[in-house]
Design a protein that fits this description.
The protein has 11 helices and 18 strands. It is of the alpha/beta class and about 400 residues long. The structure holds S-adenosylmethionine.
């Protein structure tokens, strides 16, 4: 049994979240998702035009004497969240117009740094039955870190792929929880505010890694714990109500985690690009030597500024071969070869050799600058010292 301080991990604990949060060690949590009471303060019952009663959130857990009391409560649980979140961690909180502005102010006063507010647009919202206001069709999520300089996890490329190669936007269209997903007991909704699993899927997949610890102080029907377990994360969740803890625990027990290899963020691990100039600086390609096309029909000389010159054309490795081939663009990395001991060696191979030698540790990082990287050279290996690496002198 794995533990976090004195509390068992991968478990939904019953109790007041402020008391339970106090038992969690400082800087130990990777991701917190909080769906606190909304303080809806609904007055009276609400009926549809056909006189059927609307199942609104009217639970005791959502009732506060005043806004001041709500703020005090928010401040207490949120300060604990700040304390237990790792510097690299993400904090998410969801709310409606009833509470999100108060929650957002408290969050910023505590010291959290807001990265985004996400609008969850409900594709199937409950209508405004009285016809007195606009249809309230969204909720707001705030995504924050502990400070401006936090080195947080964000799987940007995965999010882009998820959105058909377009940058994932801050408005998420997701239906409210319904159908088979909705937990029912004796045919009745087990929890009045069960969040859709898609919402938690997007949050957990974008801002945490497999094996990370995900915490939910207001677990309800256990959506966060269920999705975290499915995605190979550890979880710890709290709820005051014994009934909710029971249904959530039963729900989570049925979840089978996705196999580890399927959870890898392969798309994020793209190799950094090595520019042609780096090969010259390190002596993989020599200034003044000739590059050749594979069939030997074309050749061009390497100039000191990493451009090529051939047949009166001067340009990059890409531009010169494109010009030879009378094309707009061509990939110079696959076109050009150098002669090494009477064999032709592709410059792309030299680039791989370079990556293997100098960048193998860089590839482990999730936070690479893909388009350009700065490398500091050891002086004895600068482009001034070629050594004997088999380059033919020209
Ligand atoms: C908005 S609901 C969370 C719903 C949940 N996200 C889901 O998908 O089912 C808030 C939950 O917080 C619980 N709660 C309220 N005050 C609490 C407190 N002080 N400590 C622990 N749980 C509390 C309520 O019992 C309720 O289940």
């Amino acid at each position: 049994m794995e533990k976090l301080g004195v509390l068992e991990l991968n478990k939904i604990h019953q109790g007041d979240c402020i008391e339970l949060l106090k038992q969690i060690p400082d800087n130990s949590i990777d991701l917190i998702f909080a769906d606190p009471p909304y303080n809806l303060q609904l007055n009276g019952e609400l009926y549809r035009p056909n006189q059927t009663k609307v199942e609104a959130v009217n639970d005791a857990w959502d009732k506060f004497e005043s806004n001041e009391e709500y703020d005090k409560f928010t401040s207490l649980w949120m300060k604990e969240c700040y304390r237990i979140l790792k510097n690299s961690g993400s904090f998410w909180v969801i709310g409606t117009y009833h509470n999100i502005f108060r929650v957002g102010t408290i969050l910023q006063n505590i010291g959290f740094w807001v990265l985004n507010d996400i609008i969850w647009i409900k594709t199937n919202p409950m209508p405004n039955f009285k016809g007195t206001r606009f249809n309230n069709a969204h909720e707001t999520l705030i995504w924050a870190t502990k400070s401006k300089s936090s080195n947080y996890t964000f799987h940007y490329h995965s999010m882009k792929v998820m959105n058909d190669d377009l940058q994932m936007r801050s408005d998420w269209l997701i239906p409210i929880c319904q159908g088979d997903e909705r937990i029912k007991v004796n045919g009745q909704k087990a929890h009045s505010t069960q969040k859709p699993a898609e919402l938690l899927y997007r949050i957990i997949i974008s801002t945490s890694n497999p094996g990370d610890i995900v915490l939910d102080p207001f677990s309800g029907s256990g959506t966060t714990a269920a999705v975290a377990k499915r995605l190979g994360r550890k979880f710890i969740a709290f709820d005051r109500e014994e009934f909710y803890v029971r249904i959530a625990t039963e729900r989570v027990e049925k979840i089978k985690p996705i196999e580890k290899p399927l959870l890898e963020y392969k798309i994020e691990k793209r190799k950094p690009k090595v520019p042609f100039g780096n090969l010259i600086e390190k002596g993989f390609v020599k200034i003044g030597e000739f590059l050749y096309s594979k069939d030997g029909k074309f050749s061009a000389q390497v100039l000191a500024d990493a451009s090529l010159e051939g047949n009166g054309i001067v340009g990059s490795i890409h531009k010169v071969c494109a010009s030879f081939l009378k094309k707009e663009n061509h990939n110079g990395w696959t076109f050009w070869y150098v002669k090494r001991q009477n064999n032709l060696v592709s410059i792309d191979q030299l680039r791989h050799d370079y990556e293997k030698k100098y960048l193998k540790n860089e590839n482990k990082s999730d936070k690479l600058e893909f388009e350009s990287i700065n490398i500091f050279y050891e002086p004895e290996e600068s482009f001034l010292n070629y050594g004997d690496n088999g380059i033919q002198s020209v």
